[in-house]
Design brief:
Structural class: mainly alpha
Helix content: 55-70%
Mean pLDDT: 93
Radius of gyration: 17 Å
Shape: globular
CATH class of the largest domain: Mainly Alpha
Number of strands: 0
Oligomer: single chain
CATH superfamily of the largest domain: AhpD-like
Low-confidence stretches: none
CATH topology of the largest domain: AhpD-like
Number of helices: 9
Strand content: under 5%
Length: 187
């Protein structure tokens, strides 16, 4: 007998018009509705809050590229061993970079990846935040400035890392499983 997962929560039926439209857009653009969204669909207010923050951090205006934000997501998720995010965001890194080996390296150990000094500094910062946030210091922020990041960019690195620390813990706590389609993407 299989154990219940986050997808087994009762869903709001029928979905509100805005949510149904959002899911249709996901299906059109991604070819699927990410299971994280389906998991949150038991509570539309929480789904909307989660989606708004995700969209702002990952898709909104930023001095960080979409790829850089996805790389942060994977490096943080690797430390936290979040199966859902490693599969889903590892696929995004493979696709956005056009380098499947980059996605694989970040999933396993970002330190073995071929990275620019800027990327390395961002991932070092995000991983230190994840592993030892109490010891973050001005030197860590200065390291990001030294590779050209602005104060707003530093905020964005920290915000993306913080978001994935939260979502990693949530995904693990409720046994959120990635969509099977992610496994074969951009390989």
């Amino acid at each position: 007998m299989t154990q219940p997962t986050a997808l087994d929560l009762p869903q709001v039926e029928p979905l509100p018009e805005g949510t149904a439209k959002f899911f249709a857009i996901c299906e059109e653009k991604l070819g699927l509705v990410p299971n994280v969204l389906r998991s949150y669909a038991h509570n539309i207010e929480k789904l909307n809050a989660f989606s708004a923050l995700y969209n702002d951090l990952m898709l909104g205006e930023s001095g960080l590229s979409k790829l850089e934000r996805e790389m942060i997501a994977v490096a943080v998720s690797s430390v936290n061993r979040c199966f859902y995010c490693l599969v889903a965001h590892g696929a995004a890194v493979r696709e956005l970079s056009g380098r499947p080996e980059l996605g694989e390296a970040l999933v396993m150990n970002y330190r073995v990846a071929e990275l620019t000094p800027r990327e390395r500094a961002m991932l070092d910062f995000a991983v230190k935040m994840t592993e030892n946030s109490v010891n973050m210091a001005e030197a860590d922020r200065q390291g990001l400035r030294d590779v050209g990041l602005s104060e707003a960019d530093i905020w964005d690195v920290a915000a993306v890392a913080s978001f994935f620390n939260m979502t990693n813990k949530m995904a693990s706590a409720v046994d959120m499983q990635p969509n099977a389609e992610y496994h074969a993407q951009a390989r």
